[in-house]
Structures are given as C-alpha cells and as structure tokens.
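can u pls check wat happens w/ fe (ii) ion
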Amino acid sequence: MSEQTTEMTPTIEVNYADKIPNNVNLSEDRRLQRAMEKWQPEFIDWWKSMGPEGFQEAEVYLRTAVGADPKGWAVFDYVKMPEYRWGILLASKEEGRVIPFGKHKGEPAWQEVPGEYRAMLKRLIVIQGDTEPASVEQQRYLGKTCPSLYDLRNLFQVNVEEGRHLWAMAYLLQKYFGKDGREEAEALLNRRSGDEDKPRILGAFNEKTPDWLSFFMFTFFTDRDGKMQLESLAQSGFDPLARTCRFMLTEEAHHMFVGESGVSRVIRKTLEKMQEAGISDPNEVEAVRALGVVDLPTLQRKVNFHFSVTLDLFGAEVSTNAANAFNAGIKGRYREDRLEDNHQLLNDTYPVLRHLDGELKEVEEPALNAINARLLDDYIADATAGVKRWNKLFQGSGVDFEITAPHKAFNRRVGEFCEVHVDPRGNLVSAETWQARRDEWLPTQADEDYLLSLMKPVTEKGQYADWIAPPKQGIDKKPGDFEYVALN
Ligand SMILES: [Fe+2]
Ligand SMILES: [Fe+2]
C-alpha cells in the first residue's frame, strides 16, 4: 500500500498590515502591500548588514511610533533592533487644505502626483530618502565605543528612526510613483555611505562619523539640516509628502536633543576637570588633554567642520531648481505658513551674499532664485541659537571661552563660495594663508587621534566615560542606573 503524500509548500502569510504600524490603510491597498512585502525583507537585510554592528541581538529600550496623535504617539519598550516596528505614519489630514504657495496657491492640495511635476517631486523624495539610511551607515561602528548605555540607547533610537524615515520615503515612492518609484526605493537600499562606486547622493552623508563627539556634532548640525528640509517639504502642495514630513519632524526633535545635550555634557565635563586642575586658559591644550577630556579649541574645530559641511547640503545659494520647486508648489520656505507675504514672490527680492568681482558682497536677488539662500540663513539662525545655549555653560566657570559658528563662506565645497578661501570670520584669504592656517580652523589628524584615544566603551549601568558628564535626566523618566541596553 502506498501512501500518497502531497508536497505542500508551506506558505507563511505575514500580515504586513498588522506588522507595520500605519495610518494609511495599508491593508486596503493590495498593490502597495505587495510592493512593501518585497521591499521589507530587503530593508531588513540592509539593516542587518549596514545597521549598528555587533548589537543586533541586544535588547534596547526604544521608543516606537505607533500613531499620529500628538499626545501618546509613541510607546517605550525593550526591542531587538531588527524587530523594531518600522511604521508608516502621516500627520492627520487637514480637510480642505490648499496649496500654500507658488503659482498654484489656493488650489486644492494634490492628493495624487501632478503629472507635470512628477520628476521634480520624485527627485526631492529620493534625495531626502537617501540621507536617512546614509546616517545609519555612517554611525554603524559607534556602538563599540559608547560612553554609556544611555548614549548607546540614544544612538540606536536615532538609528531606528532614520530607518523609519527611510520607510516613509520608500512608502511615498512605492505608493505614488509606480514602477520607477519601486526601483528608486530599492536603490535607496543599494547606495552606501562613503562608497567610491555607489556613494550616497550628498557629500556630508559620505563623511565618516568615527567618534562620539562627531556623532553629537552630526546630530546637532546635520540632523538640523534634516529639520529645515522637512519643514520646507512639510509645506508642500503634494499633501502626502507634507503629512509624511510633518510626522517625521516629531521624531527629528529628539535627534537634535541628542546632539545638543551631548555636546553640552562634553563641555560640562571639560570645565569640571579644568576647574579641579586649576586651569583657566583654554589654550593650554596639552594640560587639558592630560586630564582626559576634550580641549575647547578642538571642540571649536569640530564645530567649524560640521557646520561648514552641513551648509553645503543646502545646495547653490542662487538656484533655478529651487525657484522651480517653489513656484510649482512642491517645496516651500521654512515655516511658509508663518510668513506674511504673498507666498508667490514674483516681484520680491532677497539679499544674498555672493562672491563677485573678487569680493564677498550682498546682492539683492529675485526672491524666487534665492530660496536656498534663505533656507540657509534660517538654518544658520537656528543653529547659532543652539551654539549660544552652549556658551551659557562658560558663564561663571572661570574659563573664558566662546564657541562661534564660522562664517557661512568658510570651507565650502558647494555653491557661491566653493572656489574661494575664506577664514572662519569671513575674510577672503589666499591659498597660501589657507594652507598655513588650516590646522587652526579644522580638525587635524592629531585631533582625531586624540578623540579616538578617548573612545573606550563604558557599558556598566549608570556609568559614564570620563570625558562626558552624565545627563541631567533619564530617557522616559528612568533612574540613573537604568539598563537602557541589555547586552547579551
Ligand atoms: Fe531622518
Ligand atoms: Fe534625524
């Protein structure tokens, strides 16, 4: 007697609609679900090979976005990072929203991609999307030298949320841009930060983040570029993009907090050690380094580097692409909705610092062409306000020091000043002077080596590396000895 067996291929039905926290009715869009089902495992492969190295099994106390309600949009719990529930969440829809600027101002906001702006819109989404995985790649090895479990957890929080931002952009591409959108979503997983053959699109996202001071500077300066870009896209006449970016901004605030408080804690520790040792002159670099903390001139050079590299992300100050995107109603100005003008800028001008006839001078440019210059100025104001908050730490410390953001023309590779040498105060200098003084202005190999020498992992609960002060408060109101990451 023979028994007939039927070979059954086990089909595992993964309910992505349930697995992926979303408020976009994922379960009702079969085509999109199929696209996401294909993309999701590729994302996980990318995460496992390019995400935080050595911590894929660790239980991390993470915040997960689960809804778009401003009160209670996130939950905290221990998660293994590859099991993080990367969701698709858009800020809630405003009924009757109209296009807020440009030549379509006042028309109903687009719920589908307007054909004439398809290419422009896709390009903007791809550029934004590309930055998200890039920063995860840049920060991939930092976990190995974490100054504490608290910092390790914050790094991973930033990483998983950049992963979610990638999801957000991949969702828009797959939902609204058909086949080439799906290809672009895959390409986002295939470029690599710093890779010679397939680099990330923007320069700053191909730089290294080798040490924790770099990480704090990156989250303070470069994530703030992210904020400015998202704020401009949050104004978009293409409503799904606007709503996506508005929700991303909710998470972005924490990234900048990590940077701002991280640098503050570095400064506090340096001042504490200098005071103990009776050193008041910040230029006694060797003596300060002998205390095992970051000397202030090195910190200033790191500021100079991260600030100038980030300014390059804004593109050319005077730009017809930016004018076209504004005019089309696709990308607005920073907080367009709070600006009081006609939001069309047809006859307006904006003062732009330019390099003309061998000097730097301010010129009135048509406001439409100066959209990037304006966003850059808004960024500089926002970043400089943060630098001022750092400078309060020096008051009454007995150490006379002030951190300054360098001039906007300093050390630029993109835009108006890419062909001139300008010192941090904004003076044009010769190539010889630049060469001779470069090491005063930008981090040197010796600075980097010194910073790396401080990077020894501290993974005992409630303990901190000697170069950084503990935070003033725990995450989610947790006590000082809380186990933010359970390593196993
Ligand atoms: Fe992001
Ligand atoms: Fe971010």
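Confidence is low (pLDDT under 50) at residues 1-13.
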